[in-house]
Amino acid sequence: MPSPKLVSLDYAVEMVEPGSSITISGITFVRNPTLFTAALIKKGIKDLCFIDREPGFALDMLAAAGSLRCIRAAMASFELYGLAPNVRRLAEEGAVEYIEDACGAVIAGLRAGAQGVPFMPARGLIGSQLLELHEKKWGTWRRIRDPFTGEELVAVKAINPDYAIIHVHLSDEYGNAVIEGPRFEDELKIRAAKRVIITAERIVDWEVLRGFKHTLSATSIHVDAVVHAPRGAWPTAMPGHYEADYNAIKDYIESSREGRAREWAIKNILQKAQ
Going from the N-terminus, what domains does the chain have, and what CATH number goes with each? Predict the structure, then answer.
């Protein structure tokens, strides 16, 4: 049996080093690790590089707090409210390096990282102006030929974030964890990241997970720390547990317009959880 990995929220936040690259669970307003993100913001961790396919709320919190030096994403969305407001502001001001990506390319990069190979071929990128930027400026894509057919493809360099912060429904103290409902790319992130921190709605005995052995999203071999975090995705949705709180999200947007997004996150997410 592996050693228990259950730690406090503060201890897990201390694991994240300034200047690291991070990715998180969920998309837009679904299953973001918001409690962990608020604690990270309060701690003052800076100079992070954020990588994800379709992030939203938690990314915007980090952007508002000045925690980021770069963002790599296909789309930073606030759903019906448009683009993530603080992400858009920082990108327009040039205050962060914004690496515009494509959904298929991010998934390919994470898949390569998860499988331990240096790149993954992808279709649908030839002809995009992004190709030249990724080839010449960011060094993350490269045109190649299929050795069997000669078809021109794009090789996407493996994505191996320093940290993946993944919010789940259930976990035991060893990091065996279950995500119920949509998993998005989270299982790829868990296997691709160098270190994994799980935050969980419920901590259960390992025997409870026997019935989930074919549907585990994370196993202890990949996980470095586990944090008990009830309602740790609020105000984003936790499928099967609670819906996205759009009143709270609108309040956050208004606070962002007034330059109070960081304070909103600490007061409404972190302090309410304590």
Answer: 9-101+160-273 (3.40.1080.10), 119-157 (no CATH)
